[in-house]
Amino acid sequence: MSKINVLIAGATGYLGNELIKILINHKKIKIKYLCGNSSIGKKISDFDKTIRYKLPNISKITKSKINDCDIIFCALPNGEAQIISNKLAKHNVLIDLSGDFRLKNSNEYFKWYKQKHKSTRNIKNSIYLLPELSKLKLKFNNYQIISCPGCYPTSILLPLVPLIKNKLIKTDNIIIDAKSGYSGAGRNVHKKFKGKNLYESLSAYGIALHRHNPEISQELNLYSDKKIRFSFTPHLTPMFRGILSTIYVDLNKNVNQNKLINVLRQYYKGKTFIKIANKDNLLSTNDVIGTNKCIISVCKSKYKDKIILLSAIDNLIKGGSGQAVQNMNLRLGFKEREGIL
Fold first, then answer.
1. Distance of CA 262 to CAs 48, 163, 289, 304, 308, Å?
2. Residue 186: predicted pLDDT
């Protein structure tokens, strides 16, 4: 079988680097082009010295290069994947790691991303794909654009969706306290958070205004007959990678900790990358770094009608590049974990 030709746009960023590391070990993929906007002519090893595999130098993305490949991964800033989507040929599949196609309402995109959507006609050709929750939808439609979930939403939706779907928790006051390594802000993190000591301090940011709010709301509301009300506060931590989300929920009547654990284990039975820990297991990001896993722990609180959920992922893999490759595998009919740890 001939290999699938792949173009990676945004190859020099943290997500792009992780994509390369995964795809060079994928038996059915050939990385044909590495593209960027400001690093043309440079080697990928200039950005990550651990990548020693012989690869093409960084080049400018063009329509001919897009059409010369089967799969286009886009790890560029918001707005760029929309432009790429307008250049796709019929055989192309775009797998987007930005927020460009996560929201199904272009007005919501403008509200939260502060830019007009440049490809509204392609929204209907896209699917928001968190594999463990929505991969069945992919089997019945050959979507040309796959929108990969954000890192925070991945860590939040995975523990909450089965519980909401099974009406085990109240949906009017979910509290989400999420902490991420600073790689989540990209290589320009020092410009974005100028004046903050990223290596020795913890910072709250984006309170009530973070762009992942509408994405979380959109997806959670798919599984509830009542509108979900939640508070989401992200934090930047003095570590490079990883996310730990702590989620406080109120239980419905006659529901307890064991019930939640049993439902989560049943829901994710056979799901390679999801692990439900034993009760009251105190998670660490070290449990998932370098993997495509999400570990979920159900912990009791001092109140019988309240539970604390812990969810840990690597933001660059399960919250980014690993999940993108997982989605590609599903779209192309490969084994779901092909090339992924």
1. 42, 11, 26, 18, 16
2. 73
